[in-house]
From TrEMBL:
Cross-referenced Gene3D superfamilies: 3.30.2010.20
A GO term, aspect molecular function: peptidase activity
GO biological process: proteolysis
Protein name: Putative Zn-dependent protease with MMP-like domain
Listed Pfam families: Zincin_1
Signal peptide feature range: none
Family annotation (InterPro entries): Zincin_1 (IPR010428), Zincin_1_sf (IPR038555)
Matches recorded under SUPFAM superfamilies: Metalloproteases ('zincins'), catalytic domain
Domain of life per record: Bacteria
Keyword annotations from UniProtKB, A to Z: Hydrolase, Protease
Record lineage: Bacteria, Pseudomonadati, Pseudomonadota, Alphaproteobacteria, Sphingomonadales
Amino acid sequence: MKAPDAAAFEALALAAFARIPEPFAGHLAGIRVTVAEFADAETLAAVGRDDPWELSGVYHGRSMDKESIWNSGEMPPVITLFRQPLLAEWCETGVALDDLVSHVVVHEVGHHFGLSDEQMHALEAGA
């Protein structure tokens, strides 16, 4: 079995975006999705991690709760998926790859709406 390439990951992420219901979907226009093999040292430091295998995705951008009409000239938000950690989790857990990617996309979309990791984990635990 061949590991899916970056284009396949991007397609899975876009499919996950397409499943996000309204009213949330209406606030996701302009978010770009990228795929990298691993997080770089700067990204790991920004999220308080040392091991690139521990980070499967990240949101870069201003969250909606911090947006203002006074902000201008900023790049659009980006969700980056890290292919190698996701592949490792896929192999280790047996969870379907599209489910893993969807989980990471929804998690990073939560950051777009201003939710912290702790808040999202609490929501997941209560679901």
